[in-house]
Amino acid sequence: MRSATPGEVRLEVQARRRPPGLAVRLPATAHGVETSGSTLEVEETGERAPAELWLECTDADGRPAEWFHDLWWTEVLSRWGDLSVTVHVLPTPGALLHAVVVSAVEMVRRVAPRWRVVGHAYVDELGADAAVEALARSAYHEVRLIDQPRSTCRGDRSESSLTLPEFLGRVRREQERLGVTRPILTRVADAPAGNSGGASASFGSAGTVVTAPVSLFSR
Question: Number of helices (H) and strands (E), helices first, in the chain?
Fold first, then answer.
């Protein structure tokens, strides 16, 4: 049998190489069909799943985004549920522990075992006892807690707010009491690049980053 030449091996490796993953950011304000150059239609992605979905699940007032509903999740999961996707819940107001978001995360964990869900939140918004228990019981794989106030213009934390080490300690003790090891809690210095609770910027390390209309996931 003839051995492959170095040139043939190189071509074979290049043919097997997958293109960089697609990172899609879906803002809370996305609705309808947009036609600007920053959007991406479904024909351009084909059936290839994005490597990452960066979701602004709530608007500036903490209300669920218009597109964040069961039909949207049904469409996304029916298309890509068997593939590997990382979902990031961005630190928009109240998103991490909002009942609608928590329910969606639990559903994703049940029906898409290959998906990974990462939550992001400002620690100054999570100081209450109820937040400690809710976070310890949550279905996130990982939660990244941002060690700074949401807005530096807002002044210092309230006197009742916990420091990040205090909050982490309480959540971990609650996890021990419950006998769980997830979510993994990670301390980070800053919010995802360009995000202070609802910004349009690049996120993650996957290839192309697209700010997409909700129609990206429509057949």
Answer: 6, 7
Residue 23: its H or E element: strand 23-26
Please say whether the beta carbons of 149 and 161 come within 8 A.
no
Q: What is the pLDDT of residues 94-147, one digit of tens each?
A: 999 999 999 999 999 999 999 999 999 988 888 777 889 999 999 999 999 988
Helix residue ranges, H only, 17-152: 42-45, 70-80, 99-111, 129-137
Spatial separation of the C-alpha atoms in residues 214 and 211, rounded to whole Å: 10
The residues pairing with 64 across neighbouring beta strands, listed in sequence order, are: 58
pTM value? 0.74
CA 19, CA 190: separation in Å to the nearest integer? 29
Lowest mean pLDDT across 1-10, 51-60, 141-150, 189-198? 1-10
DSSP structural state of residue 212: -
User: What is the rounded CA–CA span in Å between residue 119 and residue 140?
Assistant: 7
d(CA 126, CA 135): 9
The CA distance from 72 to 149, in Å, is 32
Smallest CA-to-CA distance from 28 within 72, 75, 60 is with 60
